[in-house]
Design brief:
single chain; alpha/beta; 44% helix
Length: 249
C-alpha cells in the first residue's frame, strides 16, 4: 500500500484517504550537538529513516501510511551547553504531541505512531506523558516504542546496550547510510573511542554531556561506524516501529 508524506499532499487527497487503513507516523528528533563529526539534526535523520523503514513494513501489511513532517525541537538539556543545540521544555513537547493527537483524532485517524531517535531523559518523559494524556482524553492511540526500554534496547547492538551511544558507532553508522555527505569523514576517522556510558551517568544523577564524560559531545566509537551496520540498524528500527504499531492495533 502507498506511503505518503503529509506535507506533499493536498487537503482533498488527505480527505480521501481510507481512515480505517491509514496509520500516521511522526518522526521525532532534536537539534543537538552530536560530536565534531555529525550534524545537529542527526536525531531527525535517524527518526525519518525509522519512519520510512517502518512505513514500508506496514505498507506490506496492507496499511496506508501517512508520514508527518518531523518534530525537530524538543528537550535537549544534556547538550544545551554546546553551540547550536536548541532545547525547549518537556511540557511544551508533551502539549504539542497531545495537540497533534487531538487534531488527528478530529480528522478521523485511528493511530499515531512516534518514530523517535532522541534519548534525552526529559524528552522521553515528555513523550511517555503524551501517550498517557492522549489515552486519558480518549484521543486516538499514541504508540511510542521507547528504545531505552525492553524489549527494544536489546536489539540495537552492543554499543547501544552499553549506553555509550551518542554520536558513536550506532548513530554515525545510520547517518553514513542515510546522509553520507553530512558526516565529516576526516574528523570521524580521527576520533578515539569514548566508552563512558550515558545511561550509567544518568542513573547517578549527571545532567550534561560534560558531566557524563563527553567534552566533545560524543560517546562510543564513531570511527568504527559503517554503512553495512547503518542499513541493518535502520531495518531494525523499522521493525520495532512496525511491531509496536501492530501490537497496539
Amino acid at each position: 500500500m502507498p506511503i505518503h508524506e503529509l506535507a506533499q499532499l493536498t487537503w482533498e487527497e488527505v480527505r480521501d484517504l481510507e481512515r480505517d487503513r491509514t496509520l500516521v507516523v511522526l518522526p521525532v528528533g532534536a537539534i543537538e550537538a552530536h560530536g565534531p563529526h555529525l550534524p545537529l539534526d542527526t536525531d531527525v535523520v535517524i527518526a525519518r529513516a525509522m519512519a520510512r523503514a517502518g512505513a514500508k513494513r506496514l505498507g506490506a501489511r496492507d496499511k496506508v501510511v501517512l508520514i508527518l513532517p518531523a518534530l525537530a525541537y524538543t528537550a535537549a538539556g544534556f547538550g544545551a551547553a554546546f553551540h547550536g543545540t536548541l532545547s525547549i521544555a518537556g511540557v511544551t513537547v508533551t502539549a504539542l504531541v497531545v495537540d497533534l493527537a487531538r487534531s488527528l483524532s478530529a480528522q478521523g485517524f485511528q493511530v499515531l505512531a512516534i518514530a523517535n531517535a532522541h534519548l534525552d531523559p526529559e524528552h522521553l518523559t515528555a513523550l511517555n506523558e503524551a501517550v498517557k494524556l492522549a489515552r486519558a482524553d480518549r484521543l486516538l492511540p499514541v504508540v511510542f516504542p521507547d528504545l531505552t526500554r525492553k524489549p527494544w534496547a536489546s536489539r540495537l547492538g552492543d554499543e547501544f546496550k552499553s549506553g555509550a551511544c551518542h554520536a558513536g558507532r550506532f548513530e554515525t553508522s545510520i547517518v553514513l547510510t542515510e546522509h553520507p555527505a553530512a558526516v565529516r569523514e576526516n574528523l570521524r576517522q580521527s576520533l578515539a573511542p569514548n566508552p563512558r556510558s550515558l545511561s550509567d551517568a544518568i542513573r547517578v544523577g549527571k545532567r550534561t554531556f560534560e558531566q557524563a564524560g563527553g567534552p566533545r559531545a560524543y560517546f562510543g566509537d564513531p570511527a568504527a561506524a559503517s554503512t553495512d551496520e547503518g542499513s541493518r540498524l535502520v531495518e531494525t528500527l523499522g521493525a520495532i516501529l512496525e511491531e509496536a504499531v501492530i501490537a497496539a492495533l
